[in-house]
Design a protein that fits this description.
Shape: flat
Radius of gyration: 19 Å
Number of strands: 0
Number of helices: 7
Protein backbone atom coordinates (compact mmCIF):
# COMPACT_ATOMS: atom_id res chain seq x y z
CA UNK A 1 0.00 0.00 0.00
CA UNK A 2 1.24 3.52 -0.75
CA UNK A 3 3.06 4.88 2.32
CA UNK A 4 1.56 8.37 2.05
CA UNK A 5 -1.94 6.94 1.75
CA UNK A 6 -1.34 4.61 4.72
CA UNK A 7 -0.01 7.51 6.82
CA UNK A 8 -3.06 9.57 5.90
CA UNK A 9 -5.33 6.68 6.92
CA UNK A 10 -3.59 6.49 10.28
CA UNK A 11 -4.03 10.21 10.88
CA UNK A 12 -7.71 10.09 9.88
CA UNK A 13 -8.27 7.09 12.15
CA UNK A 14 -6.63 8.84 15.09
CA UNK A 15 -8.90 11.80 14.47
CA UNK A 16 -12.15 9.99 13.72
CA UNK A 17 -11.79 6.58 15.37
CA UNK A 18 -11.24 3.04 14.18
CA UNK A 19 -14.48 3.04 12.19
CA UNK A 20 -12.76 5.35 9.66
CA UNK A 21 -10.08 2.74 9.05
CA UNK A 22 -12.54 -0.15 8.89
CA UNK A 23 -14.93 1.64 6.53
CA UNK A 24 -12.14 2.84 4.22
CA UNK A 25 -10.53 -0.58 4.09
CA UNK A 26 -13.92 -2.15 3.29
CA UNK A 27 -14.21 0.07 0.21
CA UNK A 28 -10.61 -0.59 -0.82
CA UNK A 29 -11.05 -4.38 -0.55
CA UNK A 30 -14.31 -4.19 -2.49
CA UNK A 31 -12.62 -2.14 -5.22
CA UNK A 32 -9.86 -4.74 -5.56
CA UNK A 33 -12.50 -7.46 -5.72
CA UNK A 34 -14.47 -5.63 -8.42
CA UNK A 35 -11.67 -4.21 -10.57
CA UNK A 36 -9.07 -7.00 -10.64
CA UNK A 37 -11.00 -9.88 -12.23
CA UNK A 38 -7.90 -11.97 -13.05
CA UNK A 39 -6.90 -12.07 -9.38
CA UNK A 40 -10.45 -12.84 -8.34
CA UNK A 41 -10.62 -15.64 -10.93
CA UNK A 42 -7.49 -17.22 -9.43
CA UNK A 43 -9.06 -17.27 -5.98
CA UNK A 44 -12.32 -18.63 -7.36
CA UNK A 45 -10.41 -21.48 -9.05
CA UNK A 46 -8.73 -22.22 -5.73
CA UNK A 47 -12.02 -22.38 -3.81
CA UNK A 48 -13.70 -24.45 -6.55
CA UNK A 49 -10.84 -26.98 -6.31
CA UNK A 50 -10.95 -26.91 -2.51
CA UNK A 51 -14.74 -27.36 -2.39
CA UNK A 52 -15.60 -29.23 -5.62
CA UNK A 53 -19.18 -29.99 -4.58
CA UNK A 54 -20.03 -26.36 -3.90
CA UNK A 55 -21.16 -23.98 -6.63
CA UNK A 56 -19.63 -20.93 -8.24
CA UNK A 57 -21.53 -18.59 -5.89
CA UNK A 58 -19.95 -20.25 -2.86
CA UNK A 59 -16.46 -19.79 -4.33
CA UNK A 60 -17.26 -16.19 -5.18
CA UNK A 61 -18.43 -15.55 -1.62
CA UNK A 62 -15.27 -17.15 -0.19
CA UNK A 63 -13.17 -14.94 -2.44
CA UNK A 64 -15.03 -11.82 -1.36
CA UNK A 65 -14.49 -12.71 2.31
CA UNK A 66 -10.82 -13.46 1.59
CA UNK A 67 -10.29 -9.96 0.22
CA UNK A 68 -12.01 -8.40 3.21
CA UNK A 69 -10.21 -10.53 5.78
CA UNK A 70 -6.88 -9.36 4.37
CA UNK A 71 -7.71 -5.85 5.62
CA UNK A 72 -7.23 -7.12 9.17
CA UNK A 73 -3.48 -7.27 8.49
CA UNK A 74 -3.44 -3.53 8.01
CA UNK A 75 -5.74 -2.93 10.96
CA UNK A 76 -3.46 -5.05 13.18
CA UNK A 77 -0.52 -2.93 12.06
CA UNK A 78 -2.47 0.17 13.03
CA UNK A 79 -3.33 -1.27 16.44
CA UNK A 80 0.30 -2.21 16.89
CA UNK A 81 1.10 1.50 17.01
CA UNK A 82 -0.78 1.51 20.33
CA UNK A 83 0.64 -1.60 21.98
CA UNK A 84 -1.98 -1.61 24.74
CA UNK A 85 -4.74 -2.45 22.23
CA UNK A 86 -3.10 -5.64 20.97
CA UNK A 87 -3.67 -8.68 23.16
CA UNK A 88 -2.40 -12.21 22.75
CA UNK A 89 -1.92 -15.40 24.70
CA UNK A 90 0.91 -17.87 24.51
CA UNK A 91 1.95 -21.09 26.18
CA UNK A 92 5.13 -23.09 26.12
CA UNK A 93 7.61 -20.21 26.18
CA UNK A 94 9.84 -22.35 28.43
CA UNK A 95 10.25 -24.87 25.59
CA UNK A 96 11.33 -22.14 23.17
CA UNK A 97 13.79 -20.75 25.72
CA UNK A 98 15.21 -24.23 26.39
CA UNK A 99 15.71 -24.91 22.67
CA UNK A 100 17.43 -21.54 22.26
CA UNK A 101 19.66 -22.09 25.30
CA UNK A 102 20.64 -25.59 24.14
CA UNK A 103 21.00 -24.44 20.53
CA UNK A 104 18.94 -27.42 19.40
CA UNK A 105 16.34 -25.58 17.39
CA UNK A 106 12.68 -26.40 17.37
CA UNK A 107 9.36 -26.10 15.61
CA UNK A 108 6.83 -23.49 16.63
CA UNK A 109 3.20 -24.39 16.05
CA UNK A 110 0.75 -21.53 15.93
CA UNK A 111 -2.98 -21.37 15.50
CA UNK A 112 -4.11 -19.49 12.45
CA UNK A 113 -6.50 -17.32 14.43
CA UNK A 114 -4.30 -14.26 14.32
CA UNK A 115 -1.88 -12.33 12.21
CA UNK A 116 1.45 -14.09 11.59
CA UNK A 117 3.21 -10.76 11.18
CA UNK A 118 2.12 -9.62 14.63
CA UNK A 119 3.05 -12.97 16.16
CA UNK A 120 6.55 -12.70 14.69
CA UNK A 121 6.89 -9.18 16.09
CA UNK A 122 5.91 -10.25 19.61
CA UNK A 123 8.12 -13.34 19.42
CA UNK A 124 11.08 -11.19 18.35
CA UNK A 125 10.32 -8.70 21.12
CA UNK A 126 10.28 -11.46 23.74
Amino acid sequence: MNTQFYDAMIQLTRWGGTWVFKLSSWFIATDFFLFFPKRVAGSIRFYRALFPRRGYGFALGCTFRQYHQFTTVFFDRYQHLDQDKVTYTSTGWDHIQKAADNRTGGIILMSHLGNWEMAAHFLQKK
